[in-house]
Design a protein that fits this description.
By secondary structure, this protein is an alpha/beta fold. It contains nine helices and eleven strands. It is elongated.
């Protein structure tokens, strides 16, 4: 609904604006639009300068504010006068005019006056936005059924919402299913922990507030926060669901160790990856893949394929802790 406009124009004379422009002519330009107030200030973004505007809002009923000063990319938090109630238009006299054009020049002055006219016109034609209200969906979609996705879904339900979890594999659990032990997560952080992934999966699948899709994929996500329409393909058929939020827990994948020929992977059977080492440990006593004999010593090669211009430029962040455990 259109509000009755009451215009206030405020021109800052700091940062070279007052030294480069005829401020009186700028005020005359603003007065062409019959503002309720038109003021100048030597330091408009100061506490005192902002208070001048706030006082006019309170005492003069100003609801349409034009600030001729610096770029809208700075001091946006200072010139914040409740955008749901008031229109605020910033006119960039500093970066766009006086800092890049000849001071006290006729063309510079005319440009500044045009900027003021454009700012006032835009402000006069603008209205505060009306808050959008809608019945938002309370279901959260979790993409990925590893430990992160399972935890996200369970915590969503604990918070009082429903969850849908979509996993592309035929079973939940992700990489944690392959792990022998995990790093300690509770004080005193002294002992490795056995993964409780099976218990987590049972808790998830037995929870009436969580719907589980396995062997499924996301065909499309459309809409906006609070109202997403998600199409899930499961067993060859598609179903569209309405969700309010989407959490991506799509996991990770090991680097292809076959690219690390200089380290002997693929050439020597006893050269294995961290993931393969976890599987060996989980299956019982660690044996050498080459002959099944006991392992007497182990060498861990850190940052293999990482922080390397020929491979991955970044650190995976988990390898060192995995090796230590």
């Amino acid at each position: 609904m259109d509000m009755e406009k009451k215009l206030g124009v405020y021109i800052c004379t700091d940062c070279g604006i007052g030294d480069s422009l005829d401020i009186e002519k700028l005020q005359n330009t603003a007065n062409e639009y019959n503002p309720a107030v038109c003021r100048t200030h030597p330091f408009l973004c100061s506490q005192e300068g902002v208070q001048v505007i706030k006082d006019d809002i309170r005492n003069e009923g100003i609801n349409t504010i034009v600030v001729g000063a610096c770029s809208q990319r700075v001091n946006y938090d200072i010139f914040d006068f409740d955008p749901l109630k008031y229109v605020t238009e910033r006119v960039n006299l500093r970066e766009h005019v006086v800092w890049v054009h000849t001071p006290n020049d006729e063309s510079t002055q005319l440009m500044a006056e045009d900027y003021v006219r454009m700012g006032i016109t835009r402000a006069n034609k603008s209205e505060p936005p009306e808050p959008k209200t809608a019945d938002l969906e309370k279901t959260t979609l979790v993409v990925g059924g590893g430990i992160a996705g399972i935890t996200a879904a369970l915590e969503t339900v604990k918070a009082g919402y429903k969850a849908v979890i979509v996993e592309k594999e035929s079973e939940l659990g992700g990489w944690v299913r392959k792990m022998h032990k995990t790093l300690p997560s509770v004080p005193p952080y002294a002992e490795l922990e056995k993964p409780d992934i099976d218990a987590k999966i049972r808790e998830l699948e037995s929870n009436p507030g969580i719907r589980v899709f396995k062997g499924a994929s996301i065909e499309s996500i459309e809409g906006e926060p609070g109202m997403f329409d998600v199409t899930v393909n499961s067993n060859g058929s598609s179903e569209t669901l309405r969700v309010g939020a989407v959490v991506f827990t799509i996991g990770w994948k090991p680097y292809d160790a076959g690219k690390l020929e200089d380290l002997g992977y693929g050439k020597y059977r006893n050269v294995v990856t961290n993931v393969e080492m976890e599987e060996l440990a989980k299956n019982g006593k660690i044996k050498r893949p080459s002959d099944g004999k006991d392992v007497k010593s182990v060498v861990f090669v850190q940052c293999a394929g990482q922080r390397d211009e020929s491979h991955l430029p970044y650190c995976s962040s988990v390898c060192c802790l995995t090796s230590l455990k």
